[in-house]
Specification:
heterodimer, A: 200 residues, mainly alpha, Four Helix Bundle (Hemerythrin (Met), subunit A), B: mainly alpha, 5 helices, 71% helix
């Protein structure tokens, strides 16, 4: 059944010189460029880690239990995202809408957690200008949070389309590309969670 | 080229995506790996192997999401190359800057 559903999604493709869907190809190239973007931000954080003259330092304020829950929430949102894609490929628009809403909700929960975390850090005196940790930490995690926020808006747009019955099986690629973006945001957080939070 | 041999049929090399059960199974594995990561962080006896273990577990989680949820295991190899090559350069940039700034020497 999965094979049939998958082939349905490709029925409306135009022939290309590579034989691959151009939108999907372009989106993977974009994700490749995003690897370099986040790589440079992570490199900056790691290079300046432990060189602060004044606090607060990472081990003083990073809240591992809280961030572990956030990481769990984002991981589970990846599951709901693939379930949305699977539902769309089967032509189940109600299921697609439900799983997309669940993914957007989990993403919004993650962003809410990040807003709470940033507020807590600010209360403890960590600002963007306070020290190297504050600057590199806020820029890296802030850009990630912005990506998640963009993803939530994208998912809500697809959710509205699914509700109106405008995401049939042959439009599954729209959901698949949004899913690629969402999973990328998830894998970036996997790296950030380990490199910034767990390895201090 | 016959009527049946379109450019798409040559280049696709794609397989069916996994089903819901396999997706849930991957999620359970990811959850267990995350629990192990956090548990290792809190065990003082494992401090000596903390960094390599966490990096290994993180890489495994990254690979599982990319392979199964992003379908790189099932889609055309070109997609994998478009993602893996820049990622290799990103890791190389991180390591090069750490060496340049003496971060690895400080450890």
């Amino acid at each position: 059944m999965a094979v049939a559903a998958h082939s349905t999604a490709h029925e409306h493709e135009h022939p290309t010189s590579t034989g691959l869907n151009s939108r999907k190809l372009l989106f993977w190239a974009f994700l490749g460029s995003e690897c370099l973007f986040f790589g440079s931000l992570i490199a900056t954080y790691l290079v300046y880690r432990g060189r602060d003259q004044v606090g607060p330092h990472p081990h003083e304020i990073l809240n591992i239990p809280f961030t572990s829950v956030s990481a769990f929430v984002l991981l589970m949102s990846s599951l709901t995202m693939v379930l949305a894609l699977a539902a769309c490929q089967r032509g189940n628009q109600r299921g697609t809408a439900i799983w997309l809403a669940a993914t957007a909700l989990l993403g919004a929960t993650f962003v809410g957690g990040q807003v709470y975390e940033f507020t807590e850090f600010f209360m403890h005196g960590l600002t963007l200008q306070k020290n190297l940790f504050g600057c590199t930490f806020y820029v890296l995690t802030g850009f990630h949070g912005t990506h998640v926020t963009v993803g939530v808006i994208w998912l809500l747009t697809l959710f509205m389309l699914a509700l109106r019955g405008r995401l049939p099986a042959h439009k599954a690629l729209d959901v698949e590309i949004a899913g690629l973006y969402w999973h990328f945001v998830d894998v970036v957080w996997i790296a950030i969670f380990t490199l910034i939070y767990l390895i201090q | 080229m016959t009527d049946h041999e379109t450019p798409s049929s040559h280049a696709h090399e794609e397989h069916a995506h996994p089903g819901a059960k396999q997706y849930v199974a991957i999620a359970v594995v990811l959850l267990v790996l995350t629990v192990i990561e956090v548990a290792i962080f809190y065990i003082p006896a494992l401090k000596g192997i903390l960094v390599p273990t966490l990096l290994g577990l993180s890489a495994l989680k990254f690979a599982l999401v990319a392979a199964f949820y992003m379908h790189l295991k099932f889609d055309h190899r070109l997609f994998s190359w478009l993602f893996v090559v820049p990622m290799f350069f990103a890791v190389a940039v991180i390591l090069a800057l750490m060496v340049l700034f003496g971060v690895l020497a400080r450890r």
